[in-house]
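BUG: 3D viewer hangs when loading the predicted structure for this chain

Environment: internal workstation, default settings.
Expected: structure renders.
Actual: progress bar stalls at 90%.

Input used:
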Amino acid sequence: MTAEEITQYLTELNDELRLMDLKGEVSLYGGAVMVLAFKTRPATRDVDAIFEPIKEIRNASHRIAERHNLRLDWLNLAEKMVVVEHPREVLFEFSNLIVTIPDAKYLLAMKLLALRPNTEDESDATFLIGKLGIKSRDQAIELVRGFYPNKEVKPGLLLWLEDFFD
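Structure tokens produced before the viewer hung:
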């Protein structure tokens, strides 16, 4: 999905909520943020998000999927993501829907913890490291631990960071 398509579907989600006389919030993560906010990629496969009210937004997103011939999980409730308290910014404020994104530091912490070699995770992390001016492996690990103090930093990430900052 391109930025234009994601924006269109979120606008339609607002319209669906308005018809139900409901207010909702969608917090975007992953590739959708890279596409919409940072414009580092032309598209993403799906939209990882956490949203409220869950049932109503999920049902509305299914109606949008049917209208546009999308996968039903185009708006993917990111239940498997471990999301902790973090700064967020409003990306869109519609009449019945607020769409937020995490700040770059938090997004990088998430990207590093989930890093899979030879995927867009690497290019996303590379962009965010540059944007934030992170200069060392230790600085990157400190950022991750600032949000996720009890999460294990995997050996694969340590190796990737060593190679990256070499």
